Amino acid sequence: MSVLKNIGRMSVRRMATVSATKGPTAVVMLNMGGPSTVPEVHDFLHRLFSDGDLIPLPFQRVLAPLIAKRRTPQIEKQYSDIGGGSPILKYTRIQGEKMCQLLDELSPSTAPHKSYVAFRYARPLTEEAIAEMRADGVTRAIAFTQYPQYSCSTTGSSLNELYRLGKKGELGNIDWSVIDRWGTHPGFVEAVAQNIEKTLQKFPPERRSSVVLLFSAHSLPMSVVNRGDPYVLEVSASVSAVMQRLGNKNPYRLVWQSQVGPSAWMGMQTREAVQGLARLGRKEVILIPIAFTSDHIETLFELDLEYVKEGHELGMDIHRSESLNESPVFIRAIADIAAQHLKEVSSGAPRTSNQLSLRCPGCTNDTCGQQKAWFSRGGQ
Ligand SMILES: C=CC1=C(C)c2cc3[nH]c(cc4nc(cc5[nH]c(cc1n2)c(C)c5CCC(=O)O)C(CCC(=O)O)=C4C)c(C)c3C=C
Ligand code: FES
Ligand SMILES: [Fe+2]
After folding, report:
1. Distance (Å, rounded) from C-alpha 193 to C-alpha 187?
2. Fold for domain 2-182+328-376?
3. Does the keyword Iron apply (predicted)?
4. Hey, which of 152, 226, 374 would you mutate to test ligand 2's pocket, going by the most ligand atoms within 8 Å of its Cβ?
């Protein structure tokens, strides 16, 4: 038995060495990113408002710098109030590195694995991740979205950006596949549920089952919802899966936060929901971030410094459930998702999910269609 084990270990090591000569299997962590320091806020907002896949503006090149400049002082203040910057880069690096350690064990035939961070609006940008991958001699890469639920304004924007670089010939000779959503994966659901259970402990046992679970996700403009974007459905599916895992013991609602600008956005708004619950006398509440995997201004500023504080002023016993951040259950989940994906693609499965192949019925952005076709061919 031990001889067999040793042979197993040797072949694992040999395979790792062989693939090391052609570079590691890259796992590219796609996300929007956030300014790591206050002076980076302006550039972050400038890139965000310049992204026509997120916010299509008339005369975008002219308007984006003006809007970014006008909004910078307010957002700088929010980042100062949460300690001087977004922790998303710190957490994404930790999640990626720990995930790859697990992946080397779970998928020895594709080892070694190396994670690269590709942010859409903050450094390291997609181009920087690609330069590092090319220097490492990468020939096989997974574009792994770190948004659990798919929206064309988030994951779609990151994939469009990769496609544009590929079309310009800047990606080199890399064979791509995509993990484009995983909002109901049992490991993700388990990690969120465990954090809720931990927060429920803060309430007296006899009142625990009447605590209201208020799931909160970043809202979407109704123009995006109404063109058939799948995000609202997918966030709802995550909430249902978490509630099922919790045995449906608590009353709950899904509400939406962080609307920007005057247009109509998906509701009900989180702030109004907190106020409404207080008015109805339902004063024991847990706020649960469900659409983002690490802390950011929406949790640390909007939920903690605004809504929890306002809830206390209304006499509520209100707490926020922790973000996933360094949760080992979560890191194990993303490693399992990547390992399963590598196994399926190596045995001939398509390079993206079937769901990614479908454009929103109201889509008028040609890049979306070209991007989907390009990834389905492995980025060729
Ligand atoms: C799943 C999460 C997110 C979706 C969906 C989303 C859509 C979306 N966002 C905007 C406009 C802005 N978003 C801004 C910041 C921001 N957005 C998300 C997440 C999602 N956005 C996060 C996590 C953050 C904050 C980053 C951090 O470090 O905390 C901003 C900038 C901040 C501000 O000016 O208020 C804007 C603008 C649109 C238009 C949109 C869908 C089309
Ligand atoms: S906007 Fe959804 S596919 Fe283009
Ligand atoms: Fe946003």
Report:
1. 10
2. Rossmann fold (3.40.50)
3. yes
4. 152
DSSP assignments along 24-70, one per residue: PEEEEEEE----SSGGGHHHHHHHHHT-TTTS--TTHHHHHHHHHHH
Rounded Cα–Cα distance for residues 116 and 237 (Å): 29
What is the pTM for the complete model shown?
A: 0.93
Q: Rounded to whole angstroms, how far apart are CA atoms 261 and 246? A: 36
Which listed residue (185, 218, 296, 341) is catalytic?
185
Comparing 189 with 380, the larger pLDDT belongs to 189
Model pLDDT for residues 139-166, shown as the tens digit of each residue: 999 999 999 999 999 999 999 999 999 9
Q: Which ligand is nearest to the CA of 218?
A: 1
* 112 prior amide bond cis, ω within 30: yes
Residue with tokens 């988030």: 154
Our answer to whether residue 336 is catalytic in this structure is yes
Fold of 186-320: Rossmann fold (3.40.50)
315 CA → ligand 3 middle, Å: 30
Does the pLDDT of residue 3 top 70, yes or no? Answer: no
What are the Cα distances from residue 271, in Å, to 187, 204, 289? 29, 25, 14
Q: How far is the CA of 219 from the centre of ligand 3 (A)?
A: 8
The ipTM value here is: 0.93
The CATH 3.40.50.1400 portion of the chain extends over 2-182+328-376, 186-320
- Please compute the mean of the pLDDT values over residues 46-71 and round it to a whole number: 97
In the predicted structure, residue 65 carries a pLDDT above the cut 80: yes
